[in-house]
Amino acid sequence: MGTIQIENVSFRYDQMVDNLFDSLNLKIDESWKLGLIGRNGRGKTTLMKLLLGQLDYQGQVVSNLNFYYYPQAVVDKNVPTIEVVKNLTHLEEYDLWKIEIELDKLKVDSGVLQQEFSTLSPGERTKVLLAILFIDESGFQLIDEPTNHLDIEGRKIVSDYLKSKKGFIVISHDKNFLNPVIDHVISINRADVDVYKGNFDTWQDNKNRQDNSEQNEKEQLKKDIHRLHETAVKRENWSNSAEAQKNKNRYGESVNLDKGFISHKSAKMMKKAKTAEKRVDSAINEKQSLLKNIEIEEPITLNYEELSHPDIFVQVDNLSLRHETITTPVVNFKVKKNQVLAVIGQNGIGKTTIFKQILGVPQPFEQIGDIKVANNLKISYLRQDNELTGEIKALAVDKKIEPEMVYSNLRKLGFERYLFNQPVENMSQGQRRKVALALSLSEKANLYFWDEPLNYLDVITRQQIISAIKKQHPTMLLIDHDQDLIDEVSTQKVKLHY
Ligand SMILES: Nc1ncnc2c1ncn2[C@@H]1O[C@H](COP(=O)(O)OP(=O)(O)OP(=O)(O)O)[C@@H](O)[C@H]1O
Ligand SMILES: [Mg+2]
After folding, report:
1. What stretch or stretches form a coiled coil here (predicted)?
2. Fewer Cβ within 10 Å of end Cβ, the chain: N or C?
């Protein structure tokens, strides 16, 4: 079996203070199914770009494999999907059956090949691009977050599909998706990068054990150093008083006695204490560098303003939206104070369209049924896409939010300070999502519309969001395909289906 060897690779983007990767060494077998995990901005996407040879780095990557990256850039989306396939694969007409086979495994009707690419649902697009990626079975696939925008069923299909393949790296923050698929983990930690044999759960168990034992060791060391300090102080006091005693008799009168042996002993004891302290100091330093891998989950807070009334914030009666051939399923629901309503349903069924209609965003849809929204509500809308551009400060001012508040929330979400002045479009996907999230957290609101908040976000941030909602019980309408989030925070669900 061939290998991919990453040898002494160092890299940083121009504006960075420190290296993103510093003398990185990894050895990967070409048959492994790897999950690449790590917090937002740690360099997962960058690592893939390094393997693809798209960035200038120090060190070397030794491999004779062909690497393929998802998501591919589709330059022209307004053409039949088959043209997109041809452009990206250079397949000849007589070889196009290969794509049909892959599409079949992904449970996509090959009829989509004749359909304009721009009209495919997000789930269909993902599957077509993945099918293209696996045309060359001998290649090594680099799959960057395929689950964003996929509904629960889509995630299951893609997960089964990947399980049947081998030799790839997939980035995902969704443990339920990763667990059945992968047999190895590459984890980009705070202080280092490691490769682990197992799936996400076994990696997590191992990490928790490691963190705990390091934490315990640190506690033990703290106790040791405290004890040593105390002993050292005692010894010092003793030797000082011995020194003072040297020239006095037992009545405290000054006399000229030679007590050289006391002086000698006290000096020896001081020296011993100092050596012991030094040893503990260096042990502590060593441990501290290990402890840098412990991820910290800081609590976050929504700037939620609870209202004593009205009781019903949003009421939707027999609502359906129509445009050309599309008609969304009829829905009915009420959102009361402190309720989290989860709107669920498959990709493309109209969840976001319903959100926008309630919010009064202009859309080319004819409305059937009624929408009532209580008056004078402050609403915070977290959109589905990473559409923000420009600097954080300007984005905050635009929404009449104190930039400092946004910065503070971003710090809690694990943002480094130097990023505050960077344009959002230069950031990693998760960092971009965090900017949108921090704006929504900072904005004073009585009601939240959160459309797929978890997309692109790392595991710790997901947990921060879940904890905040559970603690504050804000009034919220929520769309997400993450089962854990829905189960943990929703007080009621409405399912869209025909
Ligand atoms: N083109 C760029 N110019 C400058 N900095 C960049 C650029 N692309 C990425 N970065 C920075 O490099 C770091 C790593 O980015 P990368 O996209 O590799 O992270 P990631 O682990 O994939 O994160 P995510 O989970 O959010 O996708 C981030 O701090 C990001 O802001
Ligand atoms: Mg990324």
Report:
1. 266-293
2. N
